[in-house]
Amino acid sequence: MRNDTGCDARLRDILSRVKTIAMVGASDKETRPSYGVFAFLLEQGYHVTGVNPGLAGKTVHGAAFFKTLADIPGPVDMVDIFRNSAAAGGIVDEALALDLKPKVIWMQLGVRDDAAAERARAFGIDVVMDRCPKIEYQRLRLRRDDHREMLSSGC
Q1: What does each of the 155 residues of the chain score in pLDDT, given as a tens digit?
Q2: pTM metric for this prediction
Q3: Whole-Å CA distances, 47 to 8, 18, 63, 82, 90
Q4: 27 CB-contact burial (10 Å; exposed 0-12 / middle 13-18 / buried 19+)
Q5: Are 69 and 59 in contact (CB under 8 A)?
Q6: Taking a C-beta distance cutoff of 8 angstroms, is the pair 46, 21 a contact?
């Protein structure tokens, strides 16, 4: 089974309505997949914040990094988990402890935690597992100009 994310329309909807993303496990190393995905999402007009205790207080691609999700000033629409499956549950719990909960929990390729997904869904949060937003954005042929227009119009 690929995953439980549903149809392309659901993924397109998620990627179209999300404006702010916290990427947990983002890296400043150019050889890491998270480095490229972080840059790609910024290029598409998303406001992306890094969460990595080792990079807290630094910037990568001009974007700020924080130690934890709770340290990010202001709400985020999506938490993108770029850590392994064993770490996903704790990250989901951290997101659920936020006063303003994210609309989406997105677990990267190879990352899956069904129990954590159910905890998030109990709060009405959309969950995507074992997929990459960059790959899905490109596969669904979302256009940067269309997405930026949606972001600026508040759609």
Answers
A1: 344 445 899 999 999 999 999 999 999 999 999 999 999 999 999 999 999 999 999 999 999 999 999 999 999 999 999 999 999 999 999 999 999 999 999 999 999 999 999 999 999 999 999 999 999 999 998 765 554 444 443 33
A2: 0.88
A3: 23, 9, 8, 17, 23
A4: buried
A5: no
A6: yes
- Asked if residues 125 and 103 have their Cβ atoms less than 8 Å apart, the reply is yes
Instruction: Say how far apart CA 155 and CA 105 lie, in whole Å.
Output: 20
Tokens of residue 18, six digits: 């999300």
For the record, the structure tokens of 3 come out as 């995953």
Report d(CA 35, CA 4) in Å as an integer: 26
